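Need residues for this backbone.
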């Protein structure tokens, strides 16, 4: 009987320990001191018509600096960066809040759960160059589509780097002036044969596109056919 009593007492102690552990209140833990910005990004989706590619900043946690490499053509008056801060912290200005990045000093303050603060300075490096070289479409501004009245235009096939434009039968295809449309990611790409000049399209003509940073090239073949009446 005495042995049974000892077993029962041990069981009760075990139950108390288990329930005691399970009922631990998180408020018993001290407030977090984490106060850092872990990611700072400029995305096209939140900056439509101004930002063409994603720009991911380099963050120096020791110096508390955020270096963002941006193209010089950017309108800096209304920039909406996406910010990821440490858990249980608040950042000001908020993520996706519109900020005037043309200001000389741009700072973000992170406040930890404990109330401690960290201030990050944004450094703008306006030397970014685009790396794509995609010719999106070709237009002949001087040649009208007989059905719509709009200039003849064709979107390039990116898989085989070709575009075919159909022009009216009476068109002089030996003196056609093309206008090129680049993809947004190919901003400032250059051509070996610039648009705005007349070219003989009796046979297909090749145009080579070079990315702004000079590291990539792509050659497109433009073919012109006549619409038979």
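Answer:
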């Amino acid at each position: 009987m005495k042995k049974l009593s000892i077993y029962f007492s041990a069981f009760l102690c075990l139950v108390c320990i288990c329930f005691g552990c399970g009922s631990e209140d998180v408020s018993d833990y001290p407030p977090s001191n984490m106060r850092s910005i872990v990611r700072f990004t400029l995305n096209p989706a939140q900056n439509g018509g101004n930002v063409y590619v994603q720009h991911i900043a380099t963050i120096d946690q020791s110096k508390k600096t955020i270096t963002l490499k941006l193209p010089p053509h950017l309108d800096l008056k209304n920039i909406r960066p996406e910010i990821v801060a440490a858990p249980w912290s608040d950042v000001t200005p908020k993520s996706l809040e519109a900020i005037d990045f043309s200001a000389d000093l741009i700072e973000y303050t992170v406040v930890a759960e404990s109330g401690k603060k960290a201030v990050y300075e944004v450094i703008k490096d306006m030397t970014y160059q685009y790396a794509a070289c995609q010719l999106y479409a070709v237009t002949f501004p001087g040649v009208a589509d007989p059905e719509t009245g709009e200039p003849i235009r064709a979107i390039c096939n990116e898989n085989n780097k070709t575009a075919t434009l159909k022009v009216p039968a009476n068109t002089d295809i030996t003196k056609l002036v093309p206008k090129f449309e680049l993809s947004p990611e190919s901003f400032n790409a250059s051509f070996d044969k610039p648009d705005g000049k007349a070219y003989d399209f009796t046979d297909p003509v090749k145009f080579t596109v070079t990315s702004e940073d000079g590291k990539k090239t792509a050659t497109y073949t433009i073919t012109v056919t006549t619409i038979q009446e």
